[in-house]
Amino acid sequence: MKTLVLGASLKTHRFSHKAVQKLVSYNHEVVAYGLREGEISGVQIDTELLPYQDIHTVTLYLNASRQAAFYDYIISLQPSRVIFNPGTENPTFYKLLEEHNIAHEVACTLVLLASNQYEPRERQQSVNR
Fold first, then answer.
1. Could you count the other beta carbons within 10 Å of the beta carbon of residue 58?
2. Cα 28 to Cα 64: distance, rounded to the nearest angstrom
3. Facing residues of 40 across strands?
4. Which residues neighbour 69 within 8 Å (Cβ) at sequence distance 6 or greater?
């Protein structure tokens, strides 16, 4: 289950940075896009929008006013879901995702991971068996 962290930051106090670290520590496959090249927990931050394959989840760390430039890109990846972390809420984008049958969730990736709610229910059940 591959996750794209969109808005990844090299600044250690940023939640996007912490999300990459936590996803890696939970053994999730992670790719990251940000404004500056660098590495977080072995994950290279890409500074150009790559045509990633098999993205299950896009977790957003861009405020609503910066998201519009990424709508088409995110939809082109055909993720199963997009997580809108605190401060990224965007009803306009929710509607667009719904039109493309992409689930969205207003939640905190870090909290979902810590509370064992990050994985889709079907996968949680198969992992817990």
1. 26
2. 26
3. 43
4. none
A 10 A CB-CB count for 128 gives 8
Closest Cα partner for 85 from 2, 23, 1? Answer: 23
- Looking at the structure of the chain, the number of domains it has is 1
Instruction: Give me the CATH number covering residue 38.
Output: 3.40.50.720
Paired strand residues for 30: 3
Q: Say what the pTM is.
A: 0.92
Q: Taking a C-beta distance cutoff of 8 angstroms, is the pair 45, 10 a contact?
A: yes
In the predicted model, residues of the chain with pLDDT beneath 70 are 121-129
Round to whole Å and give the CA distance between 121 and 119. Answer: 6
